[in-house]
Amino acid sequence: MTENPAMPTMLNPEWEERIVPERFAGQTVIVTGAGAGIGLATTSRILREGGRVIAVDLNTDGLGDLYREFSESLVLVTADLTDPDAIPDILSAADNRVDALVNNAGVMDNFAPLHEVTDETWQRVFAVNVDGMMRLTRAVIPLMLDAGHGSVVNLTSEAGLRGSAAGVAYTASKHAVVGLTVSSAFMYATQGIRFNAVAPGGVATGIKLPADMSESGAVRLGAVNANMPGLAQAAHLAASITFLASKDSVNINGAILPSDGGWSAV
Ligand SMILES: NC(=O)c1ccc[n+]([C@@H]2O[C@H](COP(=O)([O-])OP(=O)(O)OC[C@H]3O[C@@H](n4cnc5c(N)ncnc54)[C@H](O)[C@@H]3O)[C@@H](O)[C@H]2O)c1
């Protein structure tokens, strides 16, 4: 327990990352939202496990230290995933070879319930969390079909599992991620491409909340979210994501994996 009851408990603080040497050797992995938080931790782990990473973000400054260490195997692509014109640049950075795709970039909403949500909030959240994910994956699938293999890991959320973790826009977008994942898992199941999703609970990252938070939504969600067992580290999520991205998850397709310290079991 933390000493300050207002501070969330940190889950599993004693845990240490165990690198699986060469798990991604010879593989190219695209990670979106790689500049911070969960995407940065995932990029770091894949590099240290021998993979080549195409790291995509609006802002790639946070990847500077990794780039100095892994300049041979890290390609930085500064791009806005809501821009369809960004897709060819990402594919060409990957030399049109993609063994795994981690669709991690995402943005939060302002907790607004449906009668309060604005078109701006709805469109901003869907543009990144759903449209950007769909477009990049659509472009990558033909490469994976040609290669006869591929693993796609999508970031959903606790909000993709139930209705009480965020506002309507984020909740609907993360349920859409579940739909993208299971439809694709079914459609490509016999062609060597696997689609899975990770549903984080609370994670200690710098993910931003908008300035215009809904008071009614925050009050309603606050009561339920007090059940959250605690906050995970970004590296905890990287452990779940890299498992699904790697061939260790060879027989797993269409899974929505809660990585939340048990929050979804409440
Ligand atoms: N942090 C949490 O508690 C939590 C909980 C559940 C789900 N998630 C999900 O996990 C994923 C990662 O979250 P995080 O906490 O690491 O967030 P973060 O804000 O720390 O990092 C997300 C990264 O995505 C990038 N990004 C955002 N929009 C982009 C765009 N249009 N084009 C390119 N890059 C863009 C940002 O610049 C940022 O570097 C998101 O999909 C989020 O919804 C996070």
TrEMBL record:
InterPro entries, per the entry: NAD(P)-bd_dom_sf, SDR_DHRS6-like, SDR_fam
Protein name: SDR family NAD(P)-dependent oxidoreductase
Family: Belongs to the short-chain dehydrogenases/reductases (SDR) family.
CDD domains hit by this protein: SDR_c
Iron found in the keyword field: no
Keyword Acetylation: no
Key words of the record: Oxidoreductase
Originating organism: Kocuria atrinae
